[in-house]
Write a structure and sequence with these properties.
The chain has 304 residues and is of the alpha/beta class. It contains eight helices and six strands; from the N terminus they run H-H-H-E-E-H-E-E-H-E-H-E-H-H.
Length: 304
């Protein structure tokens, strides 16, 4: 049996092998460039979305801050002339936008709920994720019922119920330990404010900040009082996955020669200069209210 073998010579077909190889490489390069462009656009889009969300959150927080300051400094003029400035509205606990009828929680508790935008005559304030802002007010600063006297030396406080609420909202900590019924005597773990930023997946390991405020001239003696890790270990059933960042607020300008030590002991420092930077966005009416509140505080200090 005879077998026939057919040989094809590419040179006879008119196809240049080198040109054919170059065309294949060009196609591969175009594909790689397309994939790289898609990845770049996707990454750029994700970055823009994140930046837009952070911007919306910052705008909402700024509006909330200005509204609360305006409410506090104008309290005797617009709300109740029998009391001085500084009181804050109670949270919205049923998500209708207004302070609940009957005021805040009972005495000895700290209230947590949604931001009462209707009470403050605002539109609903949402963060970058579209969620209404949360709001916490200590019982020392609430407007109903009041705990007197309220002045520049009034310290914030945190109760067992507030700690349970905070842990529930954060999804970490599992609440207050049953063998720690009172926070009033804990001088080495003072906590005036808490902030946290959850992720969309709802998992633990989020960014949290624990803050302390010191308004007196003896603030250097208080810069080490708040120890977030110690606070969590003493008061929470389970410590957070990531230790909270320590924050320290003081209404004085901290000199450069003392700044490094203050930061090492107190964490992220918000002195008068840093706080005043945000005042640039205040309108004239709000600034006038701040001046009026400052004058009132100074007069109270002189009287005492």
């Amino acid at each position: 049996m005879e077998r026939s073998i057919l040989f094809i010579d590419s040179t006879d077909s008119g196809i240049d092998p080198q040109r054919q190889t170059g065309a294949v490489l060009l196609v591969i390069l175009l594909l790689m460039a397309g994939v790289a462009a898609c990845l770049f656009v996707r990454k750029l889009s994700a970055g823009l979305i994140l930046a837009a969300r952070e911007y919306r959150t910052a705008v909402a927080l700024n509006q909330a801050r200005e509204a609360l300051i305006g409410y506090a400094v104008s309290y005797p003029d617009k709300i109740n002339p029998d009391y001085g400035p500084g009181y804050l509205p109670c949270p919205d606990r049923n998500n209708d936008g207004a302070t609940d009828a009957g005021g805040c929680s009972l005495s000895g508790h700290t209230s947590i709920g949604r931001f009462p935008y209707k009470t403050l005559e605002l539109e609903r304030l949402r963060d970058g994720q579209g969620e209404t802002l949360w709001y916490v007010v200590a019982d020392n600063f609430r407007n109903n019922p009041k705990l007197e006297p309220l002045n520049s030396d009034t310290a914030g406080n945190l109760t067992v119920d507030a700690l349970n609420d905070m842990c529930r909202q954060m999804g970490e900590g599992q609440g207050c330990r049953v063998d720690r019924p009172n926070l009033q005597d804990q001088k080495d773990a003072k906590l005036d404010l808490t902030v946290w930023r959850p992720f969309l997946d709802g998992r633990v390991g989020q960014l949290m900040g624990f803050g302390q405020c010191a308004t007196g001239r003896d603030w250097p003696d208080k810069v080490t009082h708040l120890q977030p890790e110690t606070f969590c270990a003493l008061w929470m059933r389970d410590t957070p996955a990531v230790s909270p960042v320590r924050l320290f607020f003081v209404p004085f300008r901290i000199e450069q020669r003392r700044w490094l030590d203050a930061t090492r002991y107190g964490g992220i420092i918000f002195d008068r200069c840093r706080i005043a930077v945000y005042g640039r966005s205040f309108d004239r009416e709000l600034l006038e209210q701040c001046v009026g509140w400052t004058d009132h505080v100074l007069r109270e200090q002189l009287r005492s």
